[in-house]
Amino acid sequence: MSAKVYLNVGREKSLLRKHPWIFSKAIAKIKGKPLIGDTVDVLDSKGNWLAKGAYSPESQIRIRVWSFIDEEIDRNFFLQRLKSAQSRREFFISEAGLTGYRLIAAESDGLPGITIDKYDNYLVCQLLSAGADFHRYTIVSCLQELYPNCHVYERSDVEVRKKEGLELTQGWLTDPIENTSCIIEEHGLKINVDVASGHKTGFYLDQRDSRLAAGRFSKGKTVLNCFSYTGTFALHCAANGAKEVVNVDVSQPALDLAKSNLALNNLQDKNVSFVKEDVFKLLRRYRDEKRTFDMIILDPPKFVDSKAQLTRACRGYKDINMLAMQLLNPKGILLTFSCSGLLDAGLFQKVVADAALDAKRAVYFVERLQQAADHPISSNYPEGYYLKGLVCQVD
């Protein structure tokens, strides 16, 4: 029999709105002795049943809800959630000709702590919560049934697992094979992905729509692509007739992979160059040299991991946007992004507006961008909205 977790008076309100998190301070008492990852029943202070969730004794998020109906959290449960997620994505997969997409976006797909990305015939799992880790082999079994020709690899090498009392882990969840690389396609372009060594689960699938937007704006322009990683923004710009593209990243292996992506798409004859340098330092140097561009892309890594870092992160975003604006020709285009979930869209726009004041440039917000459709935002889980982008015209 499952342990029962009773909430303090009034702390059921978020659950009645179907939000999947229960924090430690919301809990009044526990009947039974649940172990890490065990499924527990959640009841309000009067004993009314509310949900079933995974118990995580070391996390501030003490319970992550699996279901708001009284059902078994078994193999069939996971199988149906996986099928539903695939079904919701079929249109987007077909429309963009995708062979790489996010199959499970954790809480947004009703599977807290579970991220699964599909790259051609590879499935890459991140199991970041106690409940996800507890059910890992059930999840793998379901994936093998639904995608029998796929290899399953785990990338649970993320620091947040430590908050759940879990160790970082990485490796094959099905029979190991030597090759960890594959090629995916999006909007007619091919991209190299290494599921073992690439960032996150191997690649940034969430910026797919933004890369397409960059291509639309880049024709005939000189483009500076900052934090270029494997150069996928540059691919779209080069393919759409950019006059020149400069990729900047601190990682030589990433720049080398960017070169191979150009060759993979027969774009190596385009005017694309690669600079290994710190973006902040390079932007200042270009400013001092009075070098200018028609379009700049800013897609930095996450600057903020906690609320305590928010003020400092805002300064970082403001500084880098100000520098970029100073390098843009009149009527230049700035594509600027934040993947920090704790920095909301309104505050991000304000930071960019403040940067415009400091740069002494007039800035017009002409388009808003966000994570691709295979990274959905559930109405019950607004925290699922993390990637914000602004297309700015700078005069």
Overview of the molecule:
It is built from ten helices and 20 strands. By secondary structure, it is an alpha/beta fold. The radius of gyration is 23 Å and the shape is globular. The model has no long low-confidence stretch (mean pLDDT 96). It is 29% helix and 30% strand.
Features:
20 strands; 7-stranded mixed β-sheet; 6-stranded mixed β-sheet; 395 residues; alpha/beta; single chain; globular; 29% helix; 30% strand
How many E-type strands?
20
Largest sheet: 7 strands, mixed
Low-confidence stretches: none
Number of helical regions: 10
SS class: alpha/beta
Note the quaternary state here.
Answer: single chain
* Helix fraction bin: 25-40%
What's the shape?
A: globular
Helix-strand topology string: EHEEEEEHEEEHHEEEEHEHEHEHEHEHEE
- Mean of pLDDT: 96
Give the percentage of residues in beta strands: 25-35%
From the alpha carbons, calculate the radius of gyration and give it in angstroms.
23 Å
Q: How would you summarize what this structure contains?
A:
This protein has about 400 residues and is of the alpha/beta class. About 30% of the residues lie in helices and about 30% in strands.
Task: Write the topology of this structure.
Blueprint: E1 4-7, H1 13-16, E2 21-23, E3 27-31, E4 39-43, E5 49-55, E6 61-67, H2 75-96, E7 100-105, E8 114-119, E9 122-127, H3 130-134, H4 136-146, E10 151-156, E11 169-172, E12 181-186, E13 189-194, H5 208-217, E14 222-226, H6 232-239, E15 244-249, H7 252-264, E16 272-276, H8 279-288, E17 293-298, H9 310-326, E18 328-338, H10 345-359, E19 363-370, E20 388-394
Parallel strand pairs: 1-4, 9-10, 14-15, 14-17, 15-16, 17-18
Antiparallel strand pairs: 1-3, 2-6, 4-5, 5-6, 7-8, 8-9, 10-11, 12-13, 18-20, 19-20
Helix pairs in contact: 2-4, 5-6, 8-9, 9-10
